[in-house]
Amino acid sequence: MTPTRRHDDDRPIAVLGATGQQGGAVVSALLAEGVAVRAVVRDPHAPAALALSARGARTVVADQSDPDSLLAAFTGARGVFSVQPSSGQAGSGMTDRDEVAYGTGVVDAAVRAGVPHVVYSSANAVSGAPTGVGHFDTKAAVEDHVRRAPIWTTILRPAAFMEILLLPGTSLGGGTLTFLNRADQRVQLVAVADIGRVAAAAFADAAGFAGRTIELAGDAASGEQVAAALSEAAGRPVDYARLPDDVLDADPLLGKLAALIDDGALAGRADLDALRAEFPFLLDLRSWLAGPGAPLLHQALRTTAGNPVALR
Predict the structure, then answer these.
(1) Is the pLDDT reported for residue 180 higher than 90?
(2) Count of alpha carbons within 13 angstroms of residue 7, beta-carbon side
(3) Ordered DSSP codes for 74-103
(4) CA 228 to each of CA 123, 164, 194, 221, 285: distance values in angstroms, whole numbers, following the listed order
(5) Which long-range contacts (CB under 8 A, 24 or more apart) does 198-201 make?
(6) Contact 266, 254 (CB under 8 A)
(7) Can you name the residues that pair with 214 across neighbouring β-strands?
(8) What's the number of domains the chain is made of?
(9) Residue 5: predicted pLDDT
(10) What is the pLDDT of residue 94?
(11) Cα gap 187→122, rounded to integer Å
């Protein structure tokens, strides 16, 4: 379909997951550009929702399990940012079936509401064959549905978040970063803020981004290179070790994630040079650690308890 207005019109962008990491990054990027934002929340009185309102976003109540609420939230918007709670996230309460239903239901509601453009956030593991990991293969199913929608769509496939390196499960506070890849295995990474800025760029040029699937990363680093960057940023030595085999063997999902990194499916395939040429703002790991990642780094250095389940 052809939108009836130019990309610079003043209709809002509806953002799902607005109080979460990715949705919150999209809200920040859009507000920074003066774009009207309709932040989709479940509880407008929650502190995170009130903080969005204070920053200039308009909050609207909707739930991805309720298509009619989505229709109301999307009507009059010129774009929708779609991200779902992951069925692989501990404590999410989501099943694989839920994630597919929510992801397909969002784009269906956008079509019903007359929204001309949807940006869907997927995952970089989707770019290959089926992985056998539910919360990646769910996104492949949603991508297929998104592409068939009779509107402009853009799919982002973010690499592993830089933020995940500083979760309690990495045990950084003990002086050794533990993660899923081998010390010599490079893994692509992206700052969550950059997902927001790329999504904002897509909404600013809906026609130019229509039909695109973007493998999104800002850097690639081995375990040893990550440890070197952390040592520099922390001002003290940080070692690196892959999660022990007994931990990977005891947790089938963590073991599968490590195997997907080993065979390259989860290591990332983004063309970093091309991405930096198109999006010069993309942060590499050192820049992120010196900037938006600095508070997380200092907090992680004070946390010694490890919880590998957080790495899911």
Answers:
(1) yes
(2) 13
(3) HTT-SEEEE----TTSTT----HHHHHHHH
(4) 26, 17, 23, 10, 11
(5) 198/156, 198/279, 199/25, 199/26, 199/29, 199/81, 199/119, 199/121, 199/156, 200/26, 200/29, 200/30, 200/32, 200/33, 200/35, 201/279
(6) no
(7) 156
(8) 1
(9) 39
(10) 83
(11) 17
- With respect to residue 304, please indicate whether it lies within any of the assigned structural domains: no
Q: What is the pLDDT of residues 7-61, one digit of tens each?
A: 457 999 999 999 999 999 999 999 999 999 999 999 999 999 999 999 999 999 9
Pairing status of strand 13-15 against strand 37-41 = parallel
The separation between the first and the last C-alpha atoms of the chain, rounded to the nearest angstrom, is 38
Q: Is residue 239 part of a domain?
A: no
Predicted TM-score (pTM) of this structure: 0.93
More confident residue, 274 or 175: 274
Only one residue has tokens 């997902």, namely 195
146 vs 117: CA distance, rounded Å: 11
Q: What is the DSSP string of 124-158?
A: GGGGSS--S-HHHHHHHHHHHHHHHSSSEEEEEEE
Asked if residue 128 is part of any domain, the answer here is yes
Please choose, from the candidates 191, 289, 267, the residue with its C-alpha nearest in 3D space to the C-alpha of residue 222: 267
Handedness of CA 70, 72, 73, 79 (dihedral sign): positive
Lookup: tokens for 265: 């499916």
pLDDT in tens, 228-260: 999 999 999 999 999 999 999 999 889 999 999
CATH code for the domain of 64: 3.40.50.720
Length of the chain: 312
Is 259 part of a structural domain of the chain? no
Domain coverage including residue 66: 13-160+192-217+268-282
**Token pair for 270:** 């983004």
Q: pLDDT digit string (tens) for 88-132?
A: 776 678 899 999 999 999 999 999 999 999 999 999 999 777 888
